[in-house]
Amino acid sequence: MPSLAKLRDHGYWVSHHFYWQSLVYYFLYSARFRSFTFFSACDPAIELGGMLDENKSDIYALLPSQYVPKTINVTTDTFQPSMIAENGLVFPLIVKPNIGFRGYKVAQVYSVEEILKYLKEQDEGREWLIQEYLDYKREYSLLYYRYPDGSKAGISSLIEKVYPTVSGDGLSSIRTLVENYDNAFLDRMDLDRRFGDTLNSIPGAGEIIQLDTIGNYSRGSKFYSLMDEIDEGLVDATTSYFSQVKDIDFFRMDFKANDLEAYKSGDFGILEINGTKSEPLHIYDPRYGFWDRTKTLDDHWKIIASIVNNRRSISDYQFPSTRVGLKSLFSIKKLVD
To answer: What domains does the chain contain, in order, with CATH numbers?
Structure first.
């Protein structure tokens, strides 16, 4: 049962709106295409179109290398401290599962000891990614699509992710400021781990303390729509960056840049790519009401269906079996349960 604070949070209900409306559309389009895995036709290069338990490392390997942070794959058994220097990595670093789900178990670490502690707490046998921290000022997310025959491309969602912060009053400790901070999804246990005794320090009046550097709603970040910033230049730049990437035609890209103009000029870094499970994140902006979200999700699924139709019109693409889809579903449920 979610806490009362989460029940009062706008984003909690947006998430449920997305899930339930998408479930309806999923079954409608499954009937139309006579397949429970029809969505995979949007992104054949990604396992099951990126809907469930795809490996992030497999996706990174498909992307333009100049935009991808340095990354190494490890397990709880294979990690060696020497790997950090051998791969040119410098702290702070990001550690996360190779299979991701809404920021699940993503952590920023500052030492080998923290990596070892992190891995010790995880299940044996699973793969983890240790990744370069991208030091840009801002974090964004855009939802891009294109028809496989090249006849159409667009961006259907664009947001900036704003990290949680508190402002000092010259009297209260950071701990007190956090306790009084109205944010239902802030991970306070993680704050204790990262800040330690610093939580007892008293920031000066007006001093801004950034509480996290990972732009997930489930960790306290807020999403603000930049739909008015979508223009031909943004679409063309994204199309250009992914011109050599084949069979990934519907995806949400989380990336960091100093601003959108820098992104258009190629100065950015990719945090990750999500396939057909992607949400149009601008609906999390409080300015979007119920009917706005409903219309957006209707358009969202129409785009998916259009890409599926387009691919089938130019190729003999075969949908994966239902058995493959169920295996993937059970795998992701096991991960997050």
So the answer is: 4-68+135-162+221-336 (no CATH), 70-133 (3.30.1490.20), 165-211 (no CATH)
Mean pLDDT on 192-212 = 92
Confidence of residue 122 (pLDDT cuts 50, 70, 90): confident
Residue 166 burial class via C-beta count within 10 angstroms: exposed 0-12, middle 13-18, buried 19 and up: buried
Give just the sign of the alpha carbon dihedral 313, 314, 315, 317: negative
Secondary structure class of 145 (helix, strand, coil):
strand
- H helices of the chain, in order, are 4-7, 10-33, 56-60, 82-86, 112-120, 174-179, 188-195, 232-241, 260-264, 290-314, 322-336
Position 25 pLDDT exceeds 60: yes
Residue 284 buriedness (CB in 10 A; 0-12 / 13-18 / 19+): buried
Q: Quick one: pLDDT at residue 102?
A: 62
Residue 131: both structure tokens together: 């990744």
The SS3 assignment for 141 reads strand
The answer to whether 257 and 140 have CB atoms below 8 angstroms apart is yes
This prediction has a pTM of 0.93
